[in-house]
Amino acid sequence: MTAPGRRSSTFTRLLRHGFTDPSAAERLLDSPELAGVRDDPVLLEALGVTADPDLALHGLVRMLEAQPGPAARRELLDTLIAAKPLRDRLLGVLGASAALADHLARHPRDWEELVTYEPRDLHPGVEEFERGLAQAVDPVTLRVAYRRCLLSIAARDVCGTTELAETAAELADLATATLRAALRIAGAAAPDDAAACRLAVIAMGKCGGHELNYVSDVDVIFVGEAADGVADEGKALRSATRLASHMMRICSETTVEGSIWPVDANLRPEGRNGPLVRTLASHLAYYQRWAKTWEFQALLKARPVAGDLALGEAYVEALEPLVWQVAERENFVADVQKMRRRVVENIPAAEVDRELKLGPGGLRDVEFAVQLLQLVHGRADVSLRSGTTLHALHALAAGGYVGRADAVQLDEAYRFLRSMEHRIQLYRLRRTHLVPEAEADLRRLGRSLGLRTDPAAELIREWKRHTSVVRRLHEKLFYRPLLDAVAQLAPGETRLSPEAARERLVALGYADPAAALRHLEALASGVTRKAAIQRTLLPVLLGWFADSAEPDAGLLNFRNVSDALGKTPWYLRLLRDEGAAAENLARVLSAGRLAPDLLMRAPEAVALLGDGDGGGLEPRPRAHLEQETLAAVGRAENAEDGVRAARGVRRRELFRTCAADIVGSYGTETQPAEADQGALVDRVGGAVSDLTAATLAGTLRAVVREGWGDQLPTRFAIIGMGRFGGHELGYGSDADVLFVHEPREGVDEREAADAANKVVSEMRRLLQIPSADPPLLIDADLRPEGKSGPLVRTLKSYEAYYRRWSLVWESQALLRAEQVAGDPELGRRFLDLADPLRYPAEGLGDEAVREIRRLKARMESERLPRGADPKLHTKLGPGGLSDVEWTVQLLQLRHGWAEPGLRTTRTREALAAARAAELLGGEDAAILDEAWILATRVRNAVMLVRGRAGDTFPSDPRELAAVGRYLGYSPGHAGDMLDDYRRTTRRARAVVEELFYGAAGER
Q1: Residue 487 has pLDDT above 50, yes or no
Q2: What CA–CA distance (Å, rounded) separates 384 from 369?
């Protein structure tokens, strides 16, 4: 007898063997049914290795109680203790599945199915399962026989005799045998119907793919034809429909033995609204004319399984060519992606984090990604045409369509998640994909997967790890736009032969196909990994290049970049694996001269085009740019090296800005072009202006440090003017500036002035030294007295000049003044000095307004280049930049003193503020804004295309077409672009005539 307060030795042993309720287990072991074996260590050891020892013991006692007599109980116990295969199988099932324990309690002799351990029992197929179901004559006996077969599959599964793929295949084979048995029973009940028709059952989904779950809808499609000698096709189809409906009910309806699984025919043409059974010709006509992309995706797994197998094979043979043509559809990849996103969006919010199948990082992500790759590449590679996910994934890896390491990780994750799904469903034999929340359920689930130290915690950790892997790899494989472009090639074009390449180059618009073919041969020939990857990419890149106005230049530039970087492993990985990199590179290389020139000076900047850690294409803040530039200058040995480093940063960031602008303007296969043209203009203007400011700050630091050490004898500030001060610099803009200094205490004014002038002179020299980096031209012509005046003045000198000599145009120029580099306090004081001039109290007088108008009129007549078409000149032409800016600036000069919103250096901000203050109407403001944006975009486009600045549209047809593509015009529509420009600027000029020159300007 156990002493009070002490645990019995049995209680302790039960705890040690994994029982969670040892008291209840003790009571069960003391039951009469277990007399004689309760102390047998073999039984406890076997129970202890099950997923749930308490559940296994309870199920065993129920089985013993259900035996028909003492002899039967004795036989079961003796066999259980003596035969390890039976012990492992039976207790394993009882510890993992309460539903199968219920079945064994209802059918107490079915345990004998687990005794045999012959080789043919280890991997049964359809024939073996058909024999197991042969005696079923109605829905009830079919369910009993089905569960008996399922019992043997589960036993092999939980004991590890079969691995996941084998278990899923066995479940699919059992489903095949069950459909055949159900159709046999239905035919026996209606022999006339069976005789009147030929009926084929096509398995779809996981059953068709030979990868079924324990409890899943079995998706089917029915094909019917009239039997030989039956002339009435309509009658035959009605007979086939009755047979199919009865077969579905036999499997789906609930009886005293429960149900098997639902048979779902909703994947058929027209879904629930379509006829249940169609002829082969009707199926074919539907898929040829009406089927959606997802319906062809579903056909990947189509497999005839029951009924007239010859008719089923004819169905698959007829539709298979259509499946492999679906990738040629417009928006094919986008349709598949949209379908996947819709599935995720329809998951209830409370379940999304527990959804094993449909949630992010779940099974469906793997399956969709694999199917997309199959549909795209399976057109030319028949080895990919498998309905089984893991087989297809293996083939994709073997063919090089998926990285080897990625395929291994996806395989491992898919197997783990499917194993979880199997064990969750096996417990109650219920269709569910939700991870349980109860600790006991998580513990049983973890133990069933071999996690024994802390099963629940380990399970959650492993589950999250695998879903994270799937999410990362799914996004990488499924969403990469490379596939979309490959999918749009004509059949046979995923592999290039020299002959086919030459013909295709001509068709794609390459001006020099011979040269282009030489580039292709250099890129794709050979047996290196680099050549293999480029062979995969080239059909895609050719299409992207052809979508530009300069495909020849794009291909040449790609060859140059690949020659420079082809031996670096990260470059090849970037192109193959990073979603945006390949398309972004193609866009950038074929959009004109500026971006490729910047890239070729430092090809490693191609890393910016990817999705990874290269920084992407988002513009960097001025503070970050300045910090990097000053750090680079600080590491340099002298001023020249320091400025070279600063110019290197500028070159890289200019490339980032160009690339982002090109990609945003062209759009990509998955991301449309930026609809807000103003946002593109603002992004470029802000980025280039910030970069220029950082470059000047770094150059100033380098010059001062080399000439004077840590401190210049005079405070020194740089004031941005014009477009620089307005944050509106274009790619080809000079940096308009003013230089201001103030001698430090105790420093002679001449010494300070000499130092300031040397700084300016050296900065201008260093920023224009010929090198691989583009020069930065400093323009100080807006200073007092213009080119005749000193380059640098003291703050007092500026004050004296403006007080005594300032002209109205100088007040207008100061509207754009902003401190950009040097001493911020000195810069602030300069701006304080400028404010009364640019925002004069009570506004401009009438004479000053007339003077501004005279200046503007003289500029229009004198400065326009000879021979230029005024209507197409973006700066000085009617409705161009000058018109809009002078109109806005006149409003600032007249009303800035009273309207704080007008006190900005930025044109668009000032225009918006003027509209808000009702200084002009909303429609007029929108017209001016549109014209200013368009003219700015044209100037940026000209620089990107030609590699040099220009204020007019190019005369060369290819260059003009390239400007059009940047502005969103399709090939052949350059004329429309010019017409639209003239129309936009004409409307703007009408507003300028009224606001700047007309009566409205007298307000």
Answers
A1: no
A2: 13
Please give the pLDDT value at position 707.
Answer: 92
Which of 782, 771, 839, 768 lies closest to 813, judged by CA? 782
What is the pLDDT, as a whole number, of residue 570? Answer: 80
Residues 6+ away with beta carbon under 8 Å from 83: 115
CA–CA dist 541, 524 (Å, integer): 12
- Nearest CA-CA partner of 409 in 349, 330, 487, 468: 468
pTM of the predicted structure, to 2 decimals: 0.60
Q: Compute the mean pLDDT over every residue in the chain, rounded to the nearest whole number.
A: 88
Comparing C-alpha atoms, which of 331, 332, 414 is closest to residue 365?
Answer: 414
* 128 touches 120 (CB < 8 A): yes
- Cβ atoms of 585 and 544 within 8 Å: the answer is no
* Cβ–Cβ < 8 Å for 735, 818: no
Structure tokens at 439: 């600790």
- Beta pairing class for 735-743 and 792-794: parallel
DSSP one-letter code for 737: E
Q: Could you tell me the CA-to-CA distances from 588 to 175, 208, 582 in Å, in that order?
A: 54, 45, 10
Question: HSE on the CB side for 435, CA within 13 Å?
Answer: 27
How far, in Å, CA of 960 to CA of 956, rounded?
Answer: 6
**Dihedral of alpha carbons 338, 344, 348, 349, sign:** negative
Specify the residue for token string 């970069």. Answer: 691
3-class DSSP state for residue 580? coil
Q: What gap in Å lies between CA 825 and CA 755, rounded to an integer?
A: 19
Q: Closest Cα to residue 988, out of 887, 839, 864? A: 887
What is the amino acid identity at position 770?
A: P
Maximum distance among all Cα pairs of the chain, rounded to whole angstroms: 124
CA distances from 594 to 552, 661, 684, 935 (A): 15, 12, 14, 19
Q: How far apart are CA 834 and CA 832, in angstroms?
A: 5
Whose structure tokens read 């300032």?
806
517-559 pLDDT per residue, tens? 788 778 777 767 777 777 777 767 777 787 777 889 998 999 9
- Give me the count of residues in the chain: 1003
What is the signed CA dihedral for 456, 460, 461, 464, rounded to 10 degrees?
Answer: 170
Q: Looking at 355-401, list the stretches that DSSP marks H as alpha helix, in order from N- to C-terminal side.
A: 363-377, 389-398
Residue 306's DSSP bridge partners are 201
- Local structure of residue 346 (DSSP, 8 states): T
Amino acid at 629: T
* pLDDT tens, position by position, 168-184: 999 999 999 999 999 99
Distances (CA, A) of 467 to 366, 367, 420: 10, 13, 12
Distance of CA 595 to the CA centre of its chain: 25
Q: How far is the C-alpha of 657 from the C-alpha of 618, rounded, in Å? A: 8
Q: What is the pLDDT of residues 940-964, one digit of tens each?
A: 999 999 999 999 999 998 899 999 9
Q: What is the pLDDT of residues 699-715, one digit of tens each?
A: 999 999 999 998 999 99
In angstroms, the CA 844 to CA 575 distance is 59
Q: What is the CA 141 to chain-centroid distance, rounded?
A: 51
CA atoms within 13 A on the CB side of 688: 27
1002 has a pLDDT exceeding 50: no
Give the whole-angstrom CA distance, residue 660 versus residue 394.
Answer: 37
Shortest CA distance to 653 belongs to which of 689, 703, 697? 689
Query: What is the C-alpha separation between 175 and 153, in angstroms, rounded?
Result: 12
Question: In sequence order, what are the residues at sequence separation of 6 or more whose Cβ sits closer than 8 angstroms to the Cβ of residue 850?
Answer: none
Helix (H, G, I), strand (E, B) or coil at 781: coil
Question: Token pair of 586, please?
Answer: 């193609």
Dist. CA 888–CA 883, nearest whole Å: 9
Give the residue with greater pLDDT, 862 vs 373: 373
